[in-house]
Design brief:
Strand order of the largest sheet: 2-1-3-4-11-10-9-6-7
Number of helices: 7
Helix content: 25-40%
CATH superfamily of one domain: Class I glutamine amidotransferase (GATase) domain
Distance between the termini: 35 Å
Bound molecules: zinc ion
Structural class: alpha/beta
């Protein structure tokens, strides 16, 4: 079921077309970037975590852009994975529906933010913003803190940067059914907005409501999407095109504007 996403498969076919017969396409590609997947939860644990973690691994493998080389699900595994030594072998850290305070040691925390500042890629999915509440370093990275959500709901989402890899294959607006987050400590001026809503997900209220964005910290790149609560969203081709492009931008594989405060469209 994780092989349905063929966005990367098209790229593979394109490369293969210029190869001579029998020559593996993979040999012509740059080596895949190495990804660490964190799924530790110190609060609510989403039932979609196994599906989400398998999908991000599958997408990397199919596109050839990244390879999940390590995964940390428990506090002990996270403490072991987030060290200066281990992060030397990592290009990208996924926060896949993590919640609460993860088990970063004080040395590990320093190593992680040094790694980000030196060019590390961070991808936060859904409750990645419900992680490390009140931690100024994490807030400076993710630039938005989960506040609350209502019942799962179908919302209209607006594409805020159609040229960005995370939005390029999305329509100007589209509907999606998910658990929709509301944020605190968030400002459009401090992020590069990718997806947003023009209406409050629950109340009859117009405004600018964030859904997905990017941020730069030093040389590091952070892509965050608040979508990703439900299992079935990891089978939704619109969502997967968004996620794939966001990861590729974070890894520097595809360029995209990162100017903060891009206007509402
Ligand atoms: Zn959720």
């Amino acid at each position: 079921m994780f092989r349905r996403w063929l966005g990367g498969g098209i790229v593979v076919a394109g490369v293969a077309a210029v190869c001579w017969p029998g020559h593996p396409a993979r040999a012509l590609r740059a080596p895949a970037k190495r990804a660490l997947v964190l799924t530790q939860t110190a609060g609510f644990r989403h039932s979609s975590i196994p599906v989400a973690a398998a999908q991000v691994a599958s997408m990397g493998e199919i596109s050839g852009g990244w390879q999940v080389t390590a995964r940390a699900d428990t506090a002990a595994e996270v403490a072991e994975a987030i060290t200066a030594r281990r992060l030397k072998d990592v290009d990208l850290v996924f926060f896949v529906n993590t919640t609460g305070n993860l088990a970063f040691t004080p040395e590990g925390k320093k190593a992680f933010y040094d790694w980000v500042g030196a060019g590390g890629a961070v991808v936060g999915i859904h409750s990645a913003s419900d992680t490390f509440h009140g931690d100024p370093d994490y807030l400076n990275l993710v630039r938005g803190e989960f506040m609350t959500h209502g019942a799962q709901v179908k919302v209209t989402v607006y594409n805020q940067d159609p040229r960005h890899p995370a939005c390029r294959y999305l329509r100007a607006s589209f509907e999606i059914y998910d658990e929709i987050y509301e944020f605190k400590n968030w400002s459009r001026d401090r992020v590069h907005m990718l997806l947003s809503m023009k209406k409050h997900p629950q109340r009859d209220l117009e405004g600018d409501f964030p859904v997905a964005w990017t941020n730069r910290v030093g040389q590091g790149r952070m892509f965050y999407t608040s979508l990703g609560h439900r299992e079935d969203i990891y089978d939704n081709t619109t969502y997967l095109a968004h996620l794939q492009g966001g990861v590729e931008w974070a890894l520097g594989l595809k360029p995209g504007d990162d100017t903060p405060g891009n206007p509402i469209r």
